[in-house]
Structures
1.
Amino acid sequence: MKQRQEKRGLAYQIIVFIFISLILVFAAFIGITRILFSHIMMDNAKETVSHLANETIYQIENRLTKVLDISRTILILYHNNHFERKKLDSLLHDLVYEFETLEAVTIAYAPSSYQKGYSRTIFHSQNKAIYRELQPADYQYLDWFQIPFELESKYWTEPWYDANATKETVISYCIPLFAEGKCIGIMRLDTELSALQKIVSPLKLKHSGYAFLVSSIGTIITHPADSLTFNESIFSLAEATNDKQLRQIGKKMINGDIDFVHLQNNAVFGDSWLYYAPLITNNWSLGIVIAHEDIVGDLNLLLIIQTLFSVIIFLTISLIVYYRTLSISRPIRLFMEVANKIGQGDFDAKLPSTGNSYEIDRLILAFETMQESLKEYIQNLEITIEEKNRIEAEVKIASEIQRKLIPENTLHPYGIQELRCYGILEPAGDIGGDLYDFFPVDKSHFLFVIADVTGKGIVASMTMTMVSTYLRTVSTYHYTTGEIMQNLNNFLCKQTSASNFVTALLGILNLKNGKLEFSNAGHTPLIIRNIDNDYKIISETHSNPLGVFENIVIGSAAITLEKGDEIILFTDGITETLNPAEDFLELKGLENIITELNSTNPEQTAVQILQKVHSFAQNTPQKDDITILVIDYKK
Amino acid sequence: MHSRQIIYLIIALMIAVFFFTGCRKEKNGQLEITPEKTDSPEKKTSLFTIRYRPVWTAQAEFAGVYIAQKKGFYYDKGLNVIIQPSGINYPPYENLQQGYSDIVQMSLLTALKRDAEKGNLINLAQITQRTSLMLVGKKSRGINSIPDFEGKKIGLWKTDDRLLSLIFLQQNKLNMNIVDLDITINLFLKDGIDVMNVMRYNEYHQILQAGIDPEELFTISFADTELNIADNGLYTTREFYSKYPKQCRDFAAATLQGWIYAINNQEETVSTVLEVMHQHHLPANRPHQKWMLNELCRDITIYKNQVGILQESDFNKAKKILTDQNLPATRQTYKGFFPQ
């Protein structure tokens, strides 16, 4: 037997359904929040970082432009006073002393045909003015001199350590000095690098954000990791980590570009964002690094809170659903038990008194009605069955009575030596509509009859009983078959309903001379089989079936039997026997059976015919009674 | 009594102060590399001191020496090697001749040229077997081929290392405005010059580390031209060599041993080089020193099983290059110059 698949409970199914729905809804919600907010946060971060960068750049530029401003003053002083060196030195010292941004001023001349060249650095140290002179060999090939001199243009140096004068790491603004259109030397204004570093270094953003400065050739000028400062350039970091993206960023930085880029899993900066913007004055670049985590941290927190809320909402809903469905499924379970009990015949199983929802209440009502209906139905059924059993019992009795109406098979019926009889009646139901009978009318006349009441059941049976009884009564004062049949017809017309009519073949045999008079009222033919196993079919009929038309005249025919002749009578139950192919046996089939008979008495003839009919039928259920009556004469 | 004690105390303090300041002065500028190995004290007392001066400031160019010092290869040979301060202000040849140094490092061409003066230079070992010298020009400045050099500004070191570049210009009949350079590449980066001489192991990589891609540069590598000659070698004077031949040979052998170790242990060597550079407060980054060491290793191992050997062909070629240019050149023979 196929195993019935165990279904999940109602609560489980609803919770799973809600869970999946909630997951989809919350996933969509969280996804959309993330997309929208990450853009907003990125924009905010970019704005914040760019503000910070601009402010820092502004502060640095402020210092650098101050140097530029002073340079103009100094240049004017130089051009007005360069013939009076002492006066110029004194003025320059005052300026160095005055301006905190200015660490030292240097005027350096290239060696030429008319002067051997020298450099003079003026700075203030330990409360006094210091003037330091150098020979060309000591400065001629240094960047601060050589680059602006060769380029003949103003130049901001990379940070450098002035070991000869101030002993400070400075950056210098270098201006070419011209005489008669020819570059003759360089004026150099130093400003402390540490002052710039102090602007950049303290910058802190969120948890891990920081700023760094990159020079015009990519050297790292300030960085929270001191080991990087001056040692590394943005390109050496890129090379160390084989990071092509970082190298490209470095190129853009020294190119003066502005951008806000995501460095994903960068070996130097981690997973972070880098904002960079140039310092216009000296082509440096300021970079601000902020960890991706810092930018999206709040968003992630929000998403975590959202997720937590989702889980809490889900759990709450699940609990509510669970308890609610329990209150629904509890009565349903009860119903299930009640249904099982009803199935086992307990129609009085107790239903829950009330549900907690409209549907359950309706269900209880429906169950109650069903219970009542079932009870009523079963009661009716019991009465019907009782009735049926009673009827069946009565039918059985009727069947017994009917069977007793048919004469018993004896070798010489009623002790008549001139003939032998044998009859078989095989009813299709408990009670049949076929009939045969035989009895002596007087000492020399023997009456036999075979009849078939149309229809079956009790009505046919009653009719048959009537026919049988009536025949016995009427044959005592009528001597011809026609008269008997007419009487019977009229009787039947009066007694039975139109739907029940009777075919009958009635014969009276003169035992002395073998004369047989017979009347056939719509019945199957009569067959006479002689001693040589030849046979003759007498199909002659003398009337319609009996019980249809009242007061009709029914004739008769007469033949004379030879010694040993066998009269074979049968009902249409024989000719209408069906085989599995649904073919009738028909009269032809019966003729074949008779041809093959090897019987010597009526019993053998009847039994053999029945056997052959059965073998033709091959257990095909028969709808009609089968009746055979065989009489032989003086054998 | 009290005053006397105070005087003793003052004297003792003064001696202590003097001692410490004296020590500091001595240490000043000299390289302190603590050997990993220390043997028995008896051996230490008999160590022979050699003053070695590199041709340039501390960098991977001298990795073999630092390794030999650190790993105790010199010590094992009974040598106490002092790595002297170096750089633009310490020209090796002069230092050697004036007796400030016992052994110096120089390029072969410089050595052969300067030896024309006294003829007393001895090559103890030839470290690099080919030149790393290159000329680079920015394509953005219109330098795409050698003829493009004509009339442009070229930056050349003001030391003898410019010799080969000058010969190249002469051979190619190029008229260029020569700008003397000291140490930095910034003039080139700032377009103050169009072409510059660089060492592949050093300045060339510095240019790359300033954000200029190799594709943006036009380069001539002298190693690929007929001007390819051996470069760095260890030199001493004949006088010193005659007095201490064994120690000279031991120094060369230990240095080469240091180099072989460096070739086989490049990461460790770079770390050692970086330590030395940090001691000298020199800006340094690992990728650059790694590049330099890698280049040096390739230059050293040009000839199989010939590490440290000055090839006679190289000697003759270098000498011919000088004489062809009517430049002074050593009169020594190969065997006299490289008495292995």
2.
Amino acid sequence: MKNGILIFAHNSRDIDYALMSLVSAKFAKTNLQVPVSLVVDKSTVEWMQTSNIYDLSQEIFDKIIEIEKPVTQNIRVLNDGYTSKTVPFINSNRASVWDLTPYDRTLLIDSDFLIMSNRLNEYWDVNSNVMLSPAMQDVRGDRKGILDSWVSETGIPLYWATTVMFTKNNESKIFFDLVDVIRTNYNYFADLFRFNPKQYRNDIAFSIAKHMLNGFDTGAENLPPILTLLDKDLIHSVGKNQLRVYLNDNMSEDQVVIASIKDLDVHVMNKQSIIRNAKEFLEIL
Amino acid sequence: MDDRLQTALDFSKYRQTLAIQRRLLKEKLQAKLTYGAAGGIFHIDHSLISFVQLCIDQGRVSGIPLIDANENPVLIDDLVKFRDEIFDRYFSASFEYMSEYEKIKKSRTVEKLVDL
């Protein structure tokens, strides 16, 4: 069985997802020693060529899979420390991973997920066709809200689609087909599961699909919780498998705490912070 | 501001970073004690190590179903090999934990706590 990692990158005018994917892939390859492939669109490839990262990408990625850029109406507010911006968010084609993956067993990761340990290697042979993370874990420990654990105040548990591991077979096909049904009927499912449909979230679509295919229940096999840096946190400096970070205080913007994350996988929600440090990441790894 | 209050607030920052570093260290320990085997996933702890050793002491060394972290039964063909693996991982992870714990315990400033 061929194991591998897949990352989606569709650049927007504000965020260079391709560059983030390169950093993420280099971390993943270094620490898990498995091939990593990239799903991109034509305009993202053109930007990779213009910004001189295409040659390095060809070196790092096992395959670069070019597809049509999905059309999106999705927007989101992204914080970068204390500043914020409303940006388009191209995330609607994640369910196509089943068709696109060149691997038998795939670990799908977000481009802002940095694999700094080999923990996920323990999960390749787990006897489960689709596994997600059941929880996020705030690095600071005291900033997790109810909507980080539940789809809504009265809804089902929220899984995190930051990491998804699946075996390409009939059961996982049903799962990803269902994710696509949920995406295309998002308002209906929002009524049913009582969440705000304003912005399409893969986490929610994947959670509903997981809930339904668990027989409308929880308690299935899972990946580890996602250690998370919020988008108001900033990377201070980087080392080998190490980030030093400023952690924001929700109560007061003047209050920050510094911490060091070493040899742990981490979801860095402040994308610009990864991009600002991309050169250092790529040199160190 | 009263100097005594300022000193206390500065010290509280150090304590906050210390608490985060200790929590991250525990998280790292848990990550290193996660062990995938025979299609199951195990959290290596004293209970697992003791039970496996007990089975071996009783002469049960092959074809043993163990209950994994997801409460699924997992058939372990070679329990001696399994024991050796979890033993190695436990000691490697706990020695590393101890060494890093001692290091942060001795770090009396935020800079030292985060290796700056």
